[in-house]
Specification:
Pfam families: HTH_AsnC-type, TRASH_HVO_1752_C. By secondary structure, the protein is α+β, with helices and mostly antiparallel strands. The protein is built from six helices and eight strands; from the N terminus they run H-H-H-E-H-E-E-H-E-E-E-E-E-H. The chain has helices at 6-17, 23-30, 34-46, 86-96, 122-129, 187-203, and strands at 66-73, 100-105, 111-117, 137-142, 159-160, 167-168, 173-177, 180-184. The strands form three sheets. It has a four-stranded antiparallel beta sheet with strand order 2-3-1-4. Strand 7 (173-177) and strand 8 form a beta hairpin. Helix 2 (23-30) packs across helix 3. The longest helix has 17 residues, at 187-203.
Length: 204
């Protein structure tokens, strides 16, 4: 597997700014033809660096609710009413909430949520969201402006071995098995993975 070079990183940066940017335009910026850029993007998709292309919707244009930051304090090691870990239960609730756009877990094990709450009392929404989870406390901050700027430069992309979870470097192996692309740190891990995969298929 080949390491990402400066051209790959520049292509990623340009796509992060605008995923619909034409390959011909990207080629003009990086000194390649449009088809050559397309080949590189395809390789980045196959190796898992690019997972999907998406749309960044400006919800302020849609009048999609009040933007808020919610800082949630969770008791360490406690359990929710259903017996699950409190943090896991809170994250599951947040993941299923339509109003939530981003969630972050702090080093202290607390939860921060960015959401757009539509036409209702924000505190009532928060109470309903975490009902039964066992939240210690929370604070709600109204957001005046929000901007997310993706950064590619200076980032090292580290793929992990599908067999042993070690980092895959330029000496690693990449294989397509049943239509899925897997990465391995060495030929031995690839061989072990293939054998285990085959045994699982035969036992199915």
């Amino acid at each position: 597997m080949r390491d990402l070079d400066e051209t790959d990183l520049e292509i990623l940066s340009l796509l992060a700014e605008d995923a619909r940017r034409p390959f011909s335009e990207i080629g003009d910026r990086v000194g390649l033809s449009g088809p050559a850029v397309s080949d590189r993007v395809t390789r980045l998709e196959e190796t898992g660096v690019i997972k999907r292309f998406t749309v960044d919707v400006d919800r302020t244009k849609l009048r999609a609710g009040v933007p808020v930051l919610v800082d949630v304090e969770l008791p360490v090691g406690a359990e929710s009413t259903d017996g699950s870990n409190t943090l896991d239960a809170a994250r599951e609730r947040v993941r299923d909430a339509d109003a939530v756009e981003h969630q972050f877990v702090t080093a202290e094990g607390d939860l921060r949520v960015y959401a757009r709450v539509e036409g209702r009392n924000v505190r009532e929404w928060v109470v309903g969201l975490f009902e039964g989870v066992g939240v210690e406390d929370y604070t709600v901050t109204l957001v005046d402006e929000f901007e997310w700027t993706p950064s590619i430069e200076g980032v090292e992309f580290a793929l992990t071995c599908a067999e042993c979870s070690n980092t895959v470097d330029s000496e690693g192996e990449t294989a397509r098995i049943d239509g899925e692309v897997y990465h391995f740190c060495c030929p031995s891990c690839l061989s072990q993975f293939r054998e285990r995969y085959q045994r699982l298929e035969e036992g199915a």
